[in-house]
Each structure stands twice: as C-alpha cells, then as structure tokens.
C-alpha cells in the first residue's frame, strides 16, 4: 500500500508545468496559435467591418475633390399662349443652355485633402482593430491553455487524494487511524471534484469566446493548446514607447484625424468666398437670326451668419478636439504600456521563482508529511494541507505563464508590432 501511494505521489510531483506541456503538445488535435490568428484575420466579422469601413472612406476621396456637375437646360421661349406653334414673333426661339459652377480655389482641394486624411485614419484604425483582435485571441487562447493544464493538475491531485483515502482507510481498519481522517479525505476529494467541475464549465465558456473571435460557431471543438514557457525580460519603457509612437496604428490614425481637421478648417475659411457660374446659351429662331448668350454669375453669402461662419467655428472646434484626443491617446498608451510591462515582468519573475524554489520546497514538504503520517507523527490534516499547497502552487505557476503571454500580447498590440519582429 505504501509503495502504491509513493508511486502516485511521484506521478503527481512529476506533473509539473513542463511535464503537463509535453503531455498536451503531443495531442494530435492541438490548435496552434498561428492557426488561430490566421482564422481571426480571415473570418472575424468585426475586423471585416473595420476593413470595409476603410474601403468606404477611400471612395470618398474622389467625391470630395470632384467638380460640380454641369447643367444642361432646354426651353421653348416666348411662344404665344393662343398659338404655341406660331414662330413668327421676333422673340420666339428654341433655346439650349449649358452652365458650369466653379468652386473658389482651395475649396475642393482642401475637401479632398481632408477626405484623404480621414481615409488614411480609417485604414490605420482597421489595423488597430486587427492588432487588438489578435491580442484578444491570444488572451483567450492562453487562458484556455491554462485551464487545460490546471485541469490536469487538479485531476492528478484528486487521484492522489483518493490514494490518501485508501491509506487512511487502511490505518483506520487496523486501529491505528481515526475515522475523522477517512471523512476528511472524502471531503477533500469532493471539494477537488467541485473545483474541477467549475473549471470545466469555465473552459466551455472560454472556448465559446475564442470561437467567436475566430468567426466560428460557439460549439466548435477547441482541442489542446500550446503554452510555451515565459520568455525573456521585456525591453525598457523608453524603447517600448518609441516603438509605439512610430508603429502603433491608433497613434498614426489620431495624427491623420488632426490633419484632416486642419484641412477642413482651411476649407471652411474659404466657404465665404463666392463660387463662379459660367453659362453658354444658344437661341434658335425659326424665322429670324439666331441668338448666342454668355452668362457669368457668383454666389452671394447672404446667410453667412447662420451657415458659413458657424461652419468655420465648428471645424476649428473639431481641430482642437482631435488634437486633445491625440494627446490623450499618447498619454494613455504610455500608461498602459507601463502597466502591461509590469504585469509581464511580475509574471515572469514569479514563474521562475515558483519553478526553482517554491514548488520544489512544497513537493519536498509533501514527501516529508507523507512519511510522517505513515508512522503516525502528524495528523491527516497536515498531510492534506501540504498536498493542497502543492496543487495551488502548480496551478498558480501555469497561471503566471499564461498571464505573461497575455500581457506580452497586449504590449505588442500597443506597440503595433511583435517583440520578435512584425508578423
């Protein structure tokens, strides 16, 4: 019986995060992270909508700089009411007129420039949506990978608790143990079963979330997942921020919207200037000489106080608004990068501490407690507490690994590139 318990203990202690990773990675149905990211890029509806919005904005550029359409008119002029077919009057004629409106120089040009900046902003924001989507996919992916490994650890712990139950039952049967130990062992197994049930249901919910991000049905099977060990320390904050300023699409989009607002303000300042209308007319008189007409006209801003001037103030306010948004996004980017970098570094250092110090010591404590319990020097509660401590540290070690990768994914989204080079 003792050899059986020791073998089970060795099996549990061997199920460290590294061993669990090896077990999961051998599964044939593993969903690779690269495959998940490819699915998200190609099938996520939110990303498709952002790209289509950028396409629509690009189509506004030629519209904004296009000339006004010419106007062609036909008319029957000065026909006698009593006899519409009578053409013997000198002023009776058949006319055709072509008019063209010409905008004041700069109006259409600044309008097209504004549309170009807005289209560029929408395109960059589509890239930002893609970066954010990939970060969310990675977060859900690594959370699922953590759950899978936590379930393995908890299942092995439950099996070892069952072995402990056999030991305590055997001791009670020969009169060297307490019935309380047997009951406590049964309670511990039930509690671990409860934890496993909760984790299994959480995994179902998280798998549905990942499938939604991948553009798949919520019930699509999500197999085993990868969870590599934490990587190296992240670059310094100055390097991260410099990269974000140069590469983050959202910051570039904010700058484009500022430039668009500036162009819109310059166009609004020219709204007071008159547009020119030129018309050419031809009057055909059946019984007399034909007429030729040239027309020139300008627009008069009679209602400038309720139209052009408020438009100018509107565009000026929008320019100031976009500049404020750009500054706020810059400050928020810096703050979020600092927070995410701290999370990644904390997870990386704690994961290393758990692997090199905490877990080995906790596992040694379980071995010592089991030997002491076998000879009756400690009670069953101490043994279970030590084993549950190992269980907690093993799960926390895997959680820290997933937390590190989640934080790195969000850092890369904020930077606009991956730490190992853009993909």
Global mean pLDDT: 86
Give the oligomeric state of the chains in this entry, treating copies of one chain as homo and distinct chains as hetero. Answer: single chain
Number of domains: 1
Helices, by number, come to: 10
Tell me the CATH topology.
Outer membrane efflux proteins (OEP)
Structural class: alpha+beta
Per DSSP E runs of 2 or more residues, the count of β-strands stands at 4
Outline the low-pLDDT stretches.
Answer: 1-28
* Helix content class: 55-70%
Distance between the termini: 55 Å
Strand content: 5-15%
The assigned CATH architecture is: Up-down Bundle
> Superfamily at the CATH H level?
Outer membrane efflux proteins (OEP)
Order of helices and strands: HHHHEEHHHHEEHH
Task: Give Rg in angstroms.
Answer: 37 Å
Shape: elongated
Strand order of the largest sheet: 1-2-3-4
| Largest sheet entry | 4 strands, antiparallel
Q: Determine and state the CATH class.
A: Mainly Alpha
């Amino acid at each position: 019986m003792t050899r059986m318990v020791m073998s089970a203990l060795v099996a549990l202690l061997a199920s460290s995060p590294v061993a669990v990773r090896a077990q999961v990675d051998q599964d044939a149905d593993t969903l690779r992270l690269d495959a998940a990211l490819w699915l998200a890029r190609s099938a996520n509806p939110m990303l498709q909508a952002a790209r289509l919005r950028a396409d629509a904005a690009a189509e506004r550029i030629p519209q904004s700089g296009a000339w006004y359409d010419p106007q062609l008119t036909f008319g029957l002029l000065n026909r006698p009411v009593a006899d519409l077919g009578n053409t013997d009057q000198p002023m009776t004629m058949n006319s055709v007129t072509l008019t063209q409106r010409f905008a004041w120089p700069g109006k259409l040009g600044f309008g097209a420039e504004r549309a170009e900046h807005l289209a560029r902003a929408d395109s960059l924001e589509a890239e930002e949506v893609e970066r954010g989507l990939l970060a969310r996919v990675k977060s859900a992916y690594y959370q699922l990978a953590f759950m899978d490994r936590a379930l393995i650890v908890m299942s092995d712990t439950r099996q070892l608790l069952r072995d402990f139950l056999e030991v305590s039952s055997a001791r009670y049967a020969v009169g060297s143990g307490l019935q309380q130990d047997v009951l406590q062992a049964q309670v511990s197994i039930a509690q671990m079963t409860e934890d496993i049930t909760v984790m299994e249901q959480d995994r179902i919910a998280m798998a549905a979330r990942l499938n939604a991000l991948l553009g798949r049905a919520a019930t699509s099977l999500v197999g085993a997942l990868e969870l590599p060990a934490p990587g190296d320390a992240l670059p310094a904050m100055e390097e991260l921020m410099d990269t974000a300023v140069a590469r983050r699409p959202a910051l570039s989009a904010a700058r484009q919207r500022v430039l668009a607002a500036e162009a819109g303000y310059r166009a609004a300042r020219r709204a007071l200037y008159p547009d020119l209308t030129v018309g050419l007319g031809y009057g055909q008189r059946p019984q007399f000489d034909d007429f030729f007409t040239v027309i020139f006209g300008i627009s008069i801003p009679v209602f400038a106080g309720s139209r052009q001037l408020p438009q100018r103030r509107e565009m000026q306010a929008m320019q100031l608004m976009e500049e404020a948004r750009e500054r706020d996004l810059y400050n928020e980017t810096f703050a979020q990068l600092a927070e995410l970098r701290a999370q990644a570094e904390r997870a990386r250092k704690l994961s290393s501490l758990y692997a090199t110090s905490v877990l080995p010591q906790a596992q040694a404590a379980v071995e010592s407690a089991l030997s002491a319990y076998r000879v009756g020097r400690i009670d069953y509660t101490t043994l279970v507490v030590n084993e549950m401590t190992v269980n907690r540290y093993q799960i926390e070690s895997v959680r820290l690994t997933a937390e590190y990768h989640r934080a790195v994914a969000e850092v890369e989204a904020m930077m606009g590139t991956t730490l190992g080079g853009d993909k």
